[in-house]
Every structure is written in C-alpha cells, then in structure tokens.
Amino acid sequence: MRSALAFLMALLVAVPCAAQGRDPVLVPDVSEHRIVLRQGFTGADLLLFGALLDPAGGRARGDYDIVVVLKGPAQPIRLREKERWFGIWINADSTAYRSVPSFYALASSRPVADIVDERTAAIYELGLPWLQLSPTGSIEPEEQARFSAGLVDLRERQGLYAQYEGGVEVSEGVLYRARLPIPSNVIPGRYVAETFAIIDGRVVTSATSEVEVVKEGVSGRIATEAEDASFFYGLFAIGLSLFMGWAASRLFTLV
Amino acid sequence: MDVYLPIANLAVNGLVIVLLGLVTGILSGIFGVGGGFLTTPLLIFYGIPPTVAAASAATQVTGASVSGVMAHGRNKGVDYQIGLVIVAGGMLGALLGAGLFTLLRSVGQIDTVINILYVILLGTIGSLMLREALQSLGLVPKASGRALRRHHPWIAALPYRWRFYASGLYISPIAPLILGIVVGTLTMLMGVGGGFIMVPAMLYILGMSAKVVVGTSLFNILFITMLVTMVHALTTRAVDIVLAGLLLIGSVTGAQLGTRVAQFAKPEHLRLSLALVVLSIALVMVYGLAVQPSEVYSVVPL
C-alpha cells in the first residue's frame, strides 16, 4: 500500500517535469527497497512495476516493450575449470574476472531476440549471453567464451542468474509489472533494478531504482561478529560446542 | 523447518542438518572417529560452500567428541597420559597443515589433494582393518609363519621409553608425538577429526590396549578440532555457528547413543563394520574422482 502511494506521488511529480522532452517517460518502482536476510529467510519475490507515459501525460504509444534487469553487487572472482587428467578430474585452467555481477535477473515482455538486435542487446547487457564479464589478462576469445558460458551455466543452476522472457506483463499499454524471485543465497549489498522501454528495437528511455539487501537481526549480528571479532567468535563457537557436548553427556547420565 | 545460515549465505532445511549430525554422532560414539569425514562431503553435496562446510564440521566434531570423551572417561576408557603427548604433536601438525592448506588453495588443487588423500588413506586403512577383523572372527585363516607382536619394530627401536599404564605400553613418547603431528596435519588439510587414521594407528602401530583406543582418540580429536575451529575463525572466517549448532544438536545426542552401542557390541564386530564404512567411503571417493563432476567450473572469490 505504501509503495503504491509512493508510486502515485512519483507519477505526479515526474510527469510535469519531463513534459518538455519528446521521448516517453518511464516511472519505475519496486515492491521493496530493502530485503532483509534474517533467520527464516528462504528467498523473496521482488515486484518491479511502473508506468510508461508520453510527455503530455497521456498514454504512450502502445507498441513498446519493457525489459527489466536486476543486478547484484559485482565481485572479482577466479573461475576454475576441471579437466580429465590420467583418469581423474582435477582443476586445470583458470581465468580471473575483475567484476562479475553476483546476481542477474532479467524479465522482458517478449523474447529479447525479438525486441532488439544483437548490438543493442550487447550495449545494454540485455540477456545472459551479453553479460559483460571483464576477464583480466590476455586470453583467447574462444577460451574466454567457453569460460563465460561455464560461469553463466553454473550460476543459472545456483539460481543466481535467471532470464524470464515474457515475464513482464503490460496492461492497458501503460502499466507494466514483473516478478523476479530472489533466492536465499544472494549476497548482501546494493542491487540495481534497471527498466528499459524499447520501441522498434531502440531503447527510448530507461530508469533505475535501487534495492538494498542487508543482513539483520541474529544473522546480521553473527556475520559482523565473525568478521570484526573473529577471535571471540572462535572462542564462542568452541565454547558452544563444548557446552552442548557436556550438556548432552550430563543429560544422558540422568536418563 | 527453514533456517538461514548467516555465514554460508543460504537457507537450508534444519531437520536435514540435525539428522546428518545424528548419524555422524552415532558413528563417533561407536568407533571413536570424529565423523567429519562423513559430514564435510555431505554438507558440500547439500550445497554449502566447501570452506564453510569444513570449518563448521570441525566445530561440530568438538561437541561430539566432548560427550564421547566424558562417556568413555567414566568407563576408564581414556589414557590421558599418551593422549596429551599425541595432542602436543597434533597442535604442531595442525599449524603445519594450515600452511599447506593455504599453499594448495592458492594453486587451486586443494580439493583434488583432499580427495586423493581420502582414497589412499581410507583405502589402505580400510583393507588392513577388514583383513584383521575377518581374521579375528575366524572367517579368514591367520597369516602363518609370523610371530604376533605388540607394536611395530620401528616403535620398539625408538629411545627414551615411558610407561603408559592405561594403554599397557612401555614405549618411547616420540612415537605418539609423530602420530599426533601426522594426524594434526591431515586434520587441517582434510577438515576432519582424523579418528579414522588415529584409531587403527593406535591399535596396529602403537599396539595400545583396545579398551582405551576409542576414548583416547576422541580425547585427541577434541583438542585438535578446537584448534582447527580457532584457526578457521581467524583465517577463513568460515565458521557458521548456526550450521554448527544444528549439527551439534544431532551429533551430541548421537554420540551418547553410539557409546551405549559400543559397550554392548563385540569389538571384532565393531572393527569389521568400521572397516566396511571406511572402505565404502573410499570407493565413493574413487568414483567421484573418475566420473565427470556435475560442476566442471567452480568460482573462488579474489
């Protein structure tokens, strides 16, 4: 309810401001600006919604497509590849990436290939094949393609990369909405939701909104203590296990 | 029952973890092995990051061995004297292992080394134990022409002999010290308590009295895993206390149940079953190395 109100407010403010331009105006919002990783968190559904209006404040041309992309904080990683070596599988080649999104989910009103050409898709990173993974060091293009495909496949199966073509519903040619599932294994940080309005294969307008993923409560406390007070955290872990072992031993002598 | 693990960064079914703890706890109570060699691979299979699995399993093994040591201590099943000598060696070994771990991880071969170590150690120990257990059950004729001896000739050759009354031994402390160093190194490398190496080594190399082997092995595991937990907390920061707590609930209960089983079962039967458990895990590991893994690619943060 609150986010719906906020959305209406945003609509009232945004429409007159952009009335001078010729391109349509995109007014996006997300259902939650804060996702809290706390005890019992098993994942969440994030609703990305909004409206596309023409500068005069009326309904925009009806034949546009909407693509929404939610990206998690980027991380530097090393990707290792296993190979068969004398009958056993061991890590052989590896490659490093300077910044790889920890999470990537895309939803579009039609298959991406039908909405834009490859060049546009590559420029705006619309879709998993066009993800810019910035490998470091010199590496052959074929090899790099193989590694990148392996990474995308791995993360797709972990639920961290996903693509829902047809996942955006457009109603009345004005309002759009998409539901993106957030799995429980996301890392905390700043997530950016970017919405693109596309007409005739051209991105006419785009807008971003942010989602903060944070650890709070007991889980947050544990995560910070493990980092900041690692010695006492270790002592606490040892103490807990000693106590539980002792308690069970006492308990069973009574039985 | 869904539980969010704050360090592993994912939600798991709490009951599955508690059950897993229970199974390893029972094993630890019966055989004096920590059960880490079972917990760590199963946690990884369940989707928990390998470092978090190894670190938290170490914490769990501490709890399981505490209740095991107490149970065996009441039955006079712990030789504290030889235990302390092994612990001293184990601490040296754990630090040595920590260095090796970092080195192997930086070249990306830690998993392969761990798996190959598992196969070699579990395979040889398992088959030796199986043969011995079958012999003592009279199912296989004993090797003839060789006199029965208490411990390995090398052990007898070492200088400075001490008397270890509870174990019924008169040997040099250097032997248990070296055993401690070897076990400590392997503990840190493989993320396990090392009981499955220690128990056979105590029986067949040192020649300790079978009555105190399980308790003394648990006593040593207790100290080594405490140190390993601390090293992980300080270096990898991968100890997930929620995960360890869930495992503990299961394993401390299981350890108590296991000790009761151990008191009623025949030692030959116990050794035969441990040999079979150890051999089957070695076979699973061989299979795991030989077939194409489900994940050819793996990500490590830089």
Automatic annotation (TrEMBL), chain A:
Residues 1-19 form the signal peptide. Pfam families: Alph_Pro_TM (PF09608). The chain crosses the membrane at residues 231-252. InterPro entries: CHP02186-rel_TM. Keywords: Membrane, Signal, Transmembrane, Transmembrane helix. This is Transmembrane protein. It comes from Aurantiacibacter luteus.
UniProtKB/TrEMBL annotation, chain B:
It is found in: Cell membrane; Membrane. Pfam families: TauE. It is a multi-pass membrane protein. GO terms for cellular component: plasma membrane. Keywords: Cell membrane, Membrane, Transmembrane, Transmembrane helix. The chain crosses the membrane at residues 12-38, 44-70, 82-104, 116-141, 188-206, 218-235, 241-258, 270-290. It comes from the Bacteria. Belongs to the 4-toluene sulfonate uptake permease (TSUP) (TC 2.A.102) family. This is Probable membrane transporter protein. It comes from Aurantiacibacter luteus.
